[in-house]
Design goal:
The protein is mainly α. It is 70% helix and 2% strand. The protein has a three-stranded antiparallel beta sheet.
Length: 473
């Protein structure tokens, strides 16, 4: 008996199971529903972002004659472009904030977090096609394959198949081909729905490497489902009945898919606690006021007098108060870099812990890879925040310099002409390519491949063991 015959037999048996077919259709509809909601949500976010950016621009340009420092406090917003693939995997978007207020004197954290206003619905914020693929589709794999060996051992048909000349390796290859054929058809169907929904109906911010990201998601999830197929076949081969196999596999699914990632997250937070909101606000205010409380302000005055060769700041050809404002910005910028760098180091420490603990669960690895490929993880969000801060420094300097060179001693009484505000550039956020962050995902990709190889070797060993035990009966 050849492996192809065994593969066709596996497909035929699976196709006749009406209960399994019903579950298959239900999960397929769940993915489609989640994808529809995700695409609509992404389109809504992007539409609101565009409208907000236009309104922010119009309000800023319509200030009329006003002091530049007042305008710096009136400020502008930088709105994060919402990637098209957030409809598939929203990642940290709901939690990290979608806008930065670019104000003078302070680097504000991102705000407008959807999860904060979700209330009792917060538990459903993570519902997405990616979530269904990460948690529920592996359960479908278990239901599809749990009886692959255990059922035949219980019915006594495994010995009959082997009596027709099927070796343990041929039997394993046949069952493997049958399982992979079914999963590949499912994945192609789901991938087609995702690609069509994103390309045809998605109106999120364009991702220039969208094709590469979609292909990466397909390959990554194919490897993920392959892991669960191998674990299911292997555990089925170790069990002598359908009931035992089902109990064992549901237990493994619960531990590996649900408990292990949650435990990893809790351990990561215990090792590197989340920053306290009060302490963070206090530290932000300390950075903001450091220029006035340090001797830097006195040194700046002396350097100013020396630079312009005067003994009184009022005799300088530029406005001292405005010059002092920009000096305070230049003094604070590296302090902001250190402060936010420390926060990022804390999150990086948590993620490093998760990387180590991902060895316990491929779900942790797929979550990181999925949000990374979708462009919705922390690295992509940090890129937006850093670009917004760089833009803040440019426009605040531009407003300060207008006051420095044109105030003529009027300082805060000086008013810029209404024609000046349209000259302040708007934030034009562009989504980075996946190549910018690829090095951050190598460990997770390696862990996923480790699980793929280890699960395959486990399944082959368990299948050969089961076949040998049946042969000697």
């Amino acid at each position: 008996m050849s492996a192809s015959v065994i593969a066709r037999k596996e497909a035929l048996v699976a196709g006749r199971d009406r209960r399994l077919r019903g579950i298959y259709i239900a999960l397929l509809l769940a993915v489609i529903a989640a994808l529809s909601v995700g695409v609509v949500r992404t389109n809504t976010f992007e539409m609101e972002r565009t409208a907000a950016a236009q309104a922010d621009r119009a309000n800023f340009d319509a200030q009329g004659s006003i002091n530049p420092h007042s305008a710096a406090h009136y400020s502008k917003y930088a709105f994060m472009p919402i990637p098209s693939l957030s409809g598939f995997d929203p990642g940290v978007i709901d939690y990290a904030g979608m806008a930065v207020w670019m104000e003078g004197h302070i680097q504000n954290p991102a705000t407008f977090r959807r999860a904060e206003g979700a209330g009792d619905l917060a538990r459903f914020v993570i519902l997405s096609p990616a979530w269904v693929l990460q948690y529920l589709i592996p359960l479908l794999v278990v239901l599809l394959l749990f009886a692959s060996y255990a059922g035949e051992r219980q019915d006594g048909t495994l010995r009959q198949v082997m009596s027709y000349g099927a070796s343990p390796s041929v039997l394993f290859i046949g069952k493997l081909r049958g399982a992979l054929s079914a999963l590949l058809k499912l994945l192609i169907l789901l991938g087609g729905f995702v690609a069509i929904a994103i390309l045809a109906f998605g109106e999120g911010a364009p991702q220039e490497d969208l094709g590469i990201r979609l292909a990466g998601l397909f390959v990554t999830y194919a490897v993920y489902l392959f892991i669960y197929a191998m674990l299911t076949i292997g555990l089925s081969a170790l069990c002598s009945s359908r009931r035992a196999a089902a109990i064992a596999l549901i237990s493994v699914w619960s531990v590996v898919t649900v408990l292990a990632p949650r435990l990893g997250g809790d351990i990561a937070v215990m090792r590197t606690p989340q920053p306290d909101a009060f302490d963070t606000t206090f530290a932000l205010n300390a950075v903001r006021g450091d220029f006035g409380t340090s001797d830097y302000a006195d040194r700046h005055r002396e350097e100013f007098l020396e630079t312009y060769g005067v003994t009184d700041v009022n005799d300088a050809p530029v406005d001292f108060a405005a010059h002092r404002l920009q000096a305070s910005e230049d003094h604070a910028n590296p302090l902001w870099d250190d402060f936010y760098g420390g926060l990022r180091d804390g999150y990086a420490s948590q993620e490093n812990t998760l990387k180590v603990l991902s060895v316990l669960s491929p779900t942790s690895a797929i979550m990181a890879l999925s949000s990374g490929l979708a462009g919705t993880d922390r690295f992509h969000h940090t890129q937006f925040v850093q670009e917004a801060e760089a833009h803040r420094r440019v426009i605040i300097r531009q407003m300060n310099e207008d006051m420095i060179y044109n105030a003529n001693g009027q300082s805060f009484l000086y008013q810029s002409d209404a024609s000046f505000w349209p000259q302040i550039p708007a934030y034009e956020g562009r989504l980075p390519s996946i190549g910018t962050f690829v090095s951050n995902y190598l460990v997770h990709a390696g862990i996923l491949l480790f699980w793929a190889v280890a699960s395959f070797l486990f399944a082959r060993w368990a299948a050969n063991r089961a076949a040998r035990l049946e042969a000697v009966k």
